[in-house]
Amino acid sequence: MPVPKRKRSRARRDKRFANKGVKETAIALCQQCQHPLIPHQACSDCGFYKGVKVMKTKSDRGLKRKKQQKEKKAPEQETEDKK
Ligand SMILES: [Zn+2]
To answer: Ligand 1 (ion): which residues have CB within 5 A?
Structure first.
């Protein structure tokens, strides 16, 4: 019968039990966009929670930035037309 050559260190043994308490996280789907998310948290994709917009998302900020850039460019064109 095979026998281990050396004693397993406490560290090696305890690494095996370290994963024992890890539980599988629950995943829900966003009511607005069907994006997978953690229950009872706002959707990071669309910014909605229970059908209400509660926060700005990265894409919202991107749209706002594009609008601001267009507004900045527009006045410059007007001044060039006047000259
Ligand atoms: Zn969503």
So the answer is: 30, 32-33, 35, 43, 45-46
Number of neighbours of residue 47 by Cβ within 10 angstroms:
19
Sketch the domain layout of the chain as residue ranges: 25-78
Do 47 and 32 contact (CB within 8 A), yes or no? no
The whole-number pLDDT of residue 64 equals: 87
73 C-alpha to ligand 1 centroid (Å): 33
Instruction: Using pLDDT thresholds of 50, 70 and 90, give the confidence band for residue 81.
Output: low
DSSP structure string for 24-38: PPP-EE-TTT--EE-
Question: 81 CA distance to ligand 1 centroid (A)?
Answer: 44
pLDDT surpassing 70 at residue 76: no
